[in-house]
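Why predict the complex rather than its parts? Because the way molecules touch one another can change local conformation, and only a joint prediction can capture that. The input here totals 1156 residues.
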Amino acid sequence: MNAMQTQVKVSGLVKRFAGKTVLDGVDLSLAAGEVLCILGPNGAGKTTLISAVLGLIGADGGEIEVLGQSQKGTTRSMALRQQCGVMMQIGSLSANLTVAEQCDLFSCYYQNGYRATELVSVAGLEAQAKVRFGRLSGGQKQRLLFALALAGKPKLVFLDEPTLGMDVEARRNLWQQIRQLKQQGVAVVLTTHYLEEAEQLADRIMVLHQGRFIASGSPAELKALTRYKLVQCCTALSDQALLALPGVLQLSREQGTVTLQSSHAEQTLLALLTQDSNVSQLEVKQVALEQAFLQLTAPAAERSSTNKEQAA
Amino acid sequence: MSSVAIYQKEAWYDLISVWRTPGFVLPALAFPVVFYVFFGVLFSPSGSSSHAAYMLVTYCCFGIMGPAMFNFAMNIASDRAQGWLTLKRLSPMPVSAYLLAKMATSLVFAMLIILMLFSVAAIFGDVRLEHSQWLGLALLLLVGTVPFALIGLLLGLTLSDKAAPGVVNLLYLPMAFLSGLWLPVTMLPAFLQQLAWIWPSYHLSQLGLKIVAMDQSQPVLLHLAILGLTTMVLMRLCVLVFRRYTGAK
Amino acid sequence: MKSLVIMLIAALLVVFFLLLPQPQQETGPAPIPKAASPAELTDNSFILGPVQLFDGEKWREERFIEITNGRVQQLYLEKPDTALPWVDGNSQWLIPGLIDAHVHAWDDALQQALNFGVTTVLDMFGDHQFLATQKAARASTPQTNKADIYGAGTLVSAAKGHGTQYGRAIPVIERPEQATKFVADRLAEGSDFIKIVYTSDKALRRFRPSIDLATLTAVIAAAKAQGVLAVVHIADLPSAEEAIAAGADGLVHSFFSESVSNTLLQQMAGGQRFIIPTMTVMEGMLANKINEELLLNAPPAALTPAAISSLTERFNPSLIPSDRYQLLVNNTKQMADAGILVLAGSDAPNPNTAHGVSLIIEMVLLQRAGVPVLQVLQSASSAPTRAFGLENVGYLRPGYKADMLLLASDPMAGLTTLLAPQAIWKNGWLHQPELPAETAKIAAGLVADFTTDLSARSGGFAASSDSMMQGKSSAEISMQQGVLQVTGVTRPGFSYPWAGVAWQTSSSIESGSDVSDIKGIRFRILGTPGEYRLDAFSAGSFMPVSHRFAVTADWQTIVAPFSVFKGLNTEAVAMLIWNGPEGEFQFELDDITLE
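Output of the joint prediction:
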């Protein structure tokens, strides 16, 4: 298997709902053995993008190619379905069937997939094989859904919030499994709320905002994109005065401590110390990826003016 | 795995899943039997076995309608809401396997209800029919579940999982009553009697009553035509709704 | 494994559908039972109602009766919902089949009884072999045209006592010591109870020898010891008193020789003894009006000529004043008033009685004597059952035989409705009396000239003598040179000695021939000179009426109009017997002609 083979290729994908453009010319490509993490706030179009790629919905423009086959509308070949594994965000199974029964049912769909008992092992639910889905914990449910996504030994896996509700250990186990998939040359598309997860797993992170990718790169590259730093201190200066400081974008107060978000931290510090020599508990922090993500996707108006106006 | 196996397993697990829902199984099986025992056998106005035979047909219709409509409407609505249906659509399972599995479950329930009501009728209602009549009635009732399953499918594809049970009840119970399934249609007020023909359940029950020679003497072809037409319209609607459902989010 | 389960389920489904019940009738699905007329029933399981129901003891509130396999299953206030066929009772009156507590049954007696709704008879002396043959049927509910029979078999009497005069040799008892074995012998023969004939030394008249009191007492004691009832035939007060004092369970006749004594009344009532007054047979001796009044003017269809003969027959004219009947009436009433259990018994087929029909006459006579009508109904149903411990008859209650009469009017308002029952059920089977064939009229003309064979005209000629009744006479016949030659001897021995040649008028001795259009019989005869006797028998009668004539050694023609036979039922004459004179004789008979 060619590790660099392109498994998914999306170009200029447009999807509109009731006149509103949800996906606005999205481009995407995914190579075998690559883990792509799509970030974006709710409503950014992540699920729509995945649904379109999976053929659950049709697109209004652009092209989709999955595993070398062109994806038109909502029809997909069985062969394609045999090779794709999906774990949807809202993914509940019939509450009355046991783990073993669900695995038995799903394993029979695939020609070259795991056998039922193997699937139970993949899920790591051997002890719960006779437990009905409805009685599993949230994490156990996610593990089963993950296993079912792998039922057909797919070449391409879509994971929508796969570790939701899992405890730390289970989450780490799942990460390990995803890494194994990667090693097997499986292309993985992952969405998650846990940025740690993205940092840990993703070869590439793409940030979707208002139907467009606004950033793309490795976790390190993406982090570098975020030039902002946080300046924390106790100061007598008013909000207005603080917002007027050079480089300050946002301000927040908590029990006398002010947090300033600055695009030019050095200049901000200089001006701050100039205007208030009594500044105490001063601290400068690097922004975590999580905050960088928030920053990238926060509404522009909020970033530029709202907080300033609010302060005024 | 062969595709036959997919159909078998899908049907088997659908049946198991439904069977493990006491809230569905008990009412579906108990209501027709209890109703029949009360209105067909115990409170029979004349104490006659002909009354019991008449009511056997109508309560069998009542009995088979329920599971067909509820199984489709409620379970499909909830499968949709919970993403189960999406997951299945993404898997290499043919959609027909899913629908046929539901149909098979409805047929199993219909068969159970037929067996129970036939037993009650034979043992307590003194109903005596020729083998051909018993068998004909059973087959008619099994085939007769199809239009009601389609109604359930239509509702299941359009309603939310929360709204589905209420709406099905709202349709099921009045339809049963107005078709003369609880009381002989002749005991209904005149204007309701004239409206009875709009319900598919009326035509199914009349076909059943024809087998035991107690119908209202309308032509068989009329009932068959209306039932067939209803079934075709419902099928068309289901296809449209399913397309819309799969085309949209 | 899987396919095995599927096949099993499929097989079970097939079995289920095969087990589903199918309609019994081929008419439509779920037939609604319609009321059937009794005659439409082909079974002895059904529902009858609505009816006014007398259960043998009292009138019931229940209106419906369920009969299952010939027995009463249950009584209901409302029509029960069952699959049984329903017979509409039309709100008529339903009572248990009648029980005649005093008969002498042989031949077709049980058929005759059932034809009139008498479903059980108590035989008070008859052929024990007949009893043994017939009694088996009473245990079950087969379809039958005969009444059930319980019987005494051979009675207990002294040598030459009452009971010995009927020409059949019967064992007699001489001494008290024989009692135990005598009773045991009777029970071994099949007797259900012991009947004793007794006439006290103190009786005013003693027609025949009787056992003595010691033997009576011993026989009663033996019967009790062996677990059966002892009933006594008496004809007068002293005999009755002694029998009751000796422990008799009941008296099978009342008496008209004197008024009943208080002693007897108290003893019987206190000891729960019963009385079978048999008023009908005594009415024939004393008043002889009741049959004329109720039966003979318009005879019920089921009455055979033989029965009519019997009903019109009288005991030999006696010297008993007819006002004695009132004494019998008074005695019956006093016994009933005293609380003594009265059983209706006809004593058929003695003169003035016939099987079946005479029990209804007896009931009318009891009522006329002053016995309350409810008690009269009991006297032919529950009373005999209580008195004799009969099994499963006498009541219409669950478990009892479905022996039933449906009556068009209330028997409490008139017992004669019993003469025309709407329906008779025996063992739950509808009994349709076989009506007697019309008696064939016999044409006038030559009966026999003993030259050409005319046997087709009649039942033929045969020698006849009292030897068949253990008498000492005998006779032989032969045809020689165109005449009938009879040789024989008439000797005293039987109470009514005879010897000669009998001509049976028709092939059926039961129905005989109707000679009412024929004046008389003419024949030529010669023989040993003396007084000859021509005996004529009505059908069913065993007591001939006679015409005497003298015969010489020369041929002479004798003409005997049928009017000379007093009491002969000319509509049904069964037999004529030419009897020779006393001692040895020989006579020749020729050219017998009806004219």
